[in-house]
What we know:
The complex is a heterodimer of chains A (363) and B (290).
Chain A: E1 3-14, E2 18-29, E3 33-37, H1 44-52, E4 59-64, E5 67-68, E6 79-82, H2 94-99, H3 109-122, H4 138-150, E7 156-160, H5 168-185, E8 188-193, H6 196-202, E9 205-210, E10 213-218, H7 220-225, H8 230-235, E11 240-248, E12 253-257, E13 260-264, E14 275-280, E15 286-288, E16 297-307, E17 311-318, E18 323-329, E19 345-349, E20 355-359
Helix pairs in contact in A: 3-4
Chain B: H1 2-37, E1 41-43, E2 46-48, H2 54-61, H3 63-97, H4 101-112, H5 119-130, H6 135-142, H7 157-181, H8 185-193, H9 198-226, H10 230-236, H11 243-251, H12 257-289
Antiparallel strand pairs in B: 1-2
Amino acid sequence: MKSIIEIDGVSRTFGGKVVAVDNVQLHVAEGEFVTLLGPSGCGKTTLLRMLAGFEMPDSGSVRLDGKDVTFLPPYRRDVNMVFQDYALFPHLTAAKNVGFGLERQKLDRAEIGKRVESALQLVGLSAMADRMPHQLSGGQRQRVALARAIVRRPRVLLLDEPLSALDANLREAMQVELKHLHNKLGITFIMVTHDQTEALVMSDRIVVMHRGRIAQAGTPSDLYDRPASTYVASFVGTSNIVEGTIVSVADGIAFERQGLRLRCLPLPGFSPGQRALAAIRPERLRIVNAGAKEANVIACTVEERLFHGNSVRLRCRLASGEVFLCDRQLNASRDLGALPDAGQPVHFAADPDSIALFREDSR
Amino acid sequence: MKERKLPVNYLGLAVLSAPLVWAIVFMFVPYMIILTYSFWIKKYPTFEPAFQFGNYVQIFADPQYYQVLLRTMRIALLVTFFSLLIAYPFAYYLVFKVRSARVRLFLYMAVILPLWVSYLLRAYTWKTILGSQGVLNSFLVWSGLLSAPTDVLLYNQFSMVLTLTYIFIPFMVMPIYTSLEKIPRNLVEAASDLGVPPLGVLTKVIWPLSLPGVLAGATITFCLTFGDFIAPILVGGPDGSMISNVITSQYGTALNWPLGSALAILMLVIVLAIIELSDRLQKAERIATG
């Protein structure tokens, strides 16, 4: 597919010391919904701002639809942004905010009015056209910001933590709405977020960033099921991570940590005696009896039982001292009583294919 | 509950009483005395109590008075205009273009610091710059631009407007700087993102959002200039005297306190009207932007 955005070898250092973005390579296909995910300070926002034109890279190039825009000012780029705190003009009505960018284009008044109207309609705010920003709720302001960004029909829509200021319920509804809007408009969306759930729900592709570099890029299920590093494994979703040694690579890999022996699927690049990290998702653990004939039985002690409504999280500790989490979905019978209580021993079984192994240097 | 409430009221009263007494004794009472005087009649060699509007009529009938009033307004408007013309680009440059916070603070202080210097000294400075033996004349003669020192620089309305602009410009810079600083940067970015070039961002986003600061600065500058009486004495010359100078002379050499009081009351009314107008505009602005 054709790339609409080509970011090649882009770096940006602030004040000569802080490396915000470090040699990033990223191509985005036309119509894709890509999310830049990472903790604060990972460089995701700087990368987005370089696409908008608010920051210039120290090296590398940014191309938009084949055209080099690396040093083009924001007002000459065919992209529009939804700002984190919306950045609505406080002295203009919702309709004037939406129409702000259209007045520059050579359109007649009727055409501007029509476009503003249809953009407001698209976000369900036709009735609020004449309200001032301070008369709107947070969710409504968000919609105005969205309408303002799409009314100019940009090739790429940039979203800087668009949902972070909304409360939980509204955020979930807007996630779905944004996704629908993306399908309807067919334009490329680039979103920045630190919320992994948001990224998993909305994106075609997630780019996990770590210290200015891309840690891993892939589809949500790729990232979740086949994380490239323990960093990705613990940032996207939750993982139990145990540090140990490879004891054998014949007939699958055997991994050991103070009496805990795990059999994993065969994987190239490992040799006996090597230090390694094993990661297991909390929901992949099954509770079994002490003497169960399973490939991997992990013995722990329950420290805490946390009720999450539709699931229960057991916070356990291994004999070697690591914390181990296990999530159990509660089924229709709500068998809370069948789960072990704090202080009780528990045994988990982990299928070989549920264990991800990483070399020690992959952190 | 009662026991707790009572001391609080006493405390509030105690805190308020000193400024209240001050305001009554040193502001309200003197104004009332002046208001009373303004209805009296001048009877050579002094004046006697009366209740008549002759003094006010005289102000508007005698060109000597209403022309000074008009001139004072014109000078105050010119000073306000030139202060704004210089202060706005300066404040804009400080807030949006200077990247180093230290340089910004230094430049800001450079404007504010003269306020710590005596007013007289600052006004007098311009006398030594503009005078026929002054720095500017010496330079012009030395450089050959003039063959002899000129006296057109001093003792006229030009030198008045120049001096007053210099003296009162910090009061224009401060509120504009504050209002510009309060504009969120992402609004500037948003406008730019929506395809608006820098000049459009200035006229369509920054200027409208800084209007409260402009209004405050213009009000202070106008009112301060309107009531000034030192600059006219130092650099004003015969056609540079302003309304305050006329009032001073009515209380002094002219010995016509009733007329001086009427002029003072008229001046007070004008200043209060301007402050009230400015206040209403500010309120309208606040309602419009939340």
